Amino acid sequence: MPPDTFLTTSAIVRAAFGDAVISWSELSIYPWSPVFRATLRGADGTPTDVVVKRSMRTRERVDALARWQRNLVEAGVPAITPIAIDGVDATVEADAMSWIAYPFVSGPPWDASIEQIELAGLALGRQHAASATFDDPDLPRFPWPEPTPERVAEDVGEIASVVANEHPDGQALADRWTDELTLFPTTILPAIRDADLPSFPVTFDYRVTNLVFSPDGALPLMVDFENGDVGPRLLDLAHAVLLFALETNPNPGRLLDAGEWSRFRDAYLAAAPPLSDVERNLWPTALTYVRLEFGTWHLTEGAEWDWPGNRPFLRDILTLDEHARFPLAD
C-alpha cells in the first residue's frame, strides 16, 4: 500500500476515534501496512499511548481474537491485548475495515543474539501450549491454497526470473524450484493438508518484527495476532523458522543458522505440546511447504529486495536446503 494511501487512511481512522484523540501521527510507523501512533483517552479518561491498526474483517472475528489474546495473558504468555477507549467502542469501523487500539510498548532493539533467539523459541512454545486447549468458533480457519495450473506456471516463471537476476549460474537451482512448484499441488500440499495435524489458534506471523524484547531477559511480547487463525501448529513453527528475521533492522542477511535453530528448537520443544509422530515425520514436508507457499511470495510478488539486509536474506531462501539446516534433532 503506497504512502499516500496511508495518509488518506490515517485521516479516516482518526475521525472514527472522534473526541478520544489527544494526538495522532498521520504517518504509519510500519512500511507495509497502516499502523498509527496516537495518544487516546482511556476508559477512565487518562491519556494512553497506543498504536492503532487494522484487525480482522468482521466484528465477530475481532472479538474472538481478543478472547484468544486474553487467554494467553491469563496463561502467563506475553501477548498484546486491546485497550478500552473513552467513549469509543472497542472495535472501530473505518475505511471498510475494523480497527483496534493496542497499548504502545517498546523494548531493547533486536540484536540477533543467541539469548534473544532462545527466548523467542521458548515464548513460541508457551504460546502453543496455552493455545492448544483454546478454541473459538469465530476464529478463522487456516485457508488451504488451491493452486491452479495457471498459477503454478506463473510462480515457475517468476522464480525463474529471480534465479536469473540473483543467481545467474543457477540453472540447477531453477530446475529444482520448477520441479517442486509443479509437484506442490499433488504431493506436498495433500501430504500436509490431509494428515489431520494438531491444529489450534496460531499467529502465522511469529517473527522478530512482531516481538518486543524485554530489557530484563523476560519472554518477548507478541504484538501482532491479526494474521492468526486455527491451523496446524507444525506449519506455524516452520513459518517462524524460515521467516524469523525477515525485514528486521538490523537484518542479519540470512535465515537462522544451524546453531541458532538448535537453540530455538530446543527451547520451543521444552515448552510446547509434544510433537506427535505424524508431526515429526512430516516436519521436512512442512518446511518445504512453507518455503514454496510463503517463500515463493516473498521472493516474487512480495519481495523487498532493497530493504537493508534483505537481498542476502532472500537469496538464502532461494538457495536454502531446509532439511539439512533445520532438523528436529542434532
**Rg:** 20 Å
Q: What's the total count of β strands?
A: 9
In terms of DSSP E residues, the strand content is 5-15%
User: Residue-averaged pLDDT, rounded?
Assistant: 93
CATH superfamily of the largest domain: Aminoglycoside phosphotransferase (APH), C-terminal lobe
Topology of helices and strands:
Elements: H1 3-17, E1 21-24, E2 35-41, E3 47-54, H2 59-74, E4 92-94, E5 97-103, H3 114-131, H4 149-166, H5 171-183, H6 188-193, E6 199-202, E7 211-212, E8 221-222, E9 229-232, H7 233-243, H8 258-271, H9 277-299, H10 310-319, H11 322-325
Antiparallel strand pairs: 1-2, 2-3, 3-5, 4-5, 6-9, 7-8
Helix pairs in contact: 3-8, 4-5, 7-9, 9-10
Q: What do these coordinates show?
A:
By secondary structure, the protein is an alpha+beta fold. It folds into two domains: 101 residues, Phosphorylase Kinase, domain 1, CATH 3.30.200; 212 residues, Aminoglycoside phosphotransferase (APH), C-terminal lobe (Aminoglycoside 3'-phosphotransferase, Chain: A, domain 2). The protein contains eleven helices and nine strands. The strands form three sheets. A five-stranded antiparallel β-sheet has the order 1-2-3-5-4, with helices on one face. A two-stranded antiparallel ribbon has the order 6-9. A two-stranded antiparallel ribbon has the order 7-8. A hairpin with a 5-residue loop joins strand 2 and strand 3. The longest helix has 23 residues. The chain is globular.
Short descriptors:
330 residues, alpha+beta, Phosphorylase Kinase, domain 1, Aminoglycoside 3'-phosphotransferase, Chain: A, domain 2, 2 domains, five-stranded antiparallel sheet, two-stranded antiparallel ribbon, 11 helices, globular
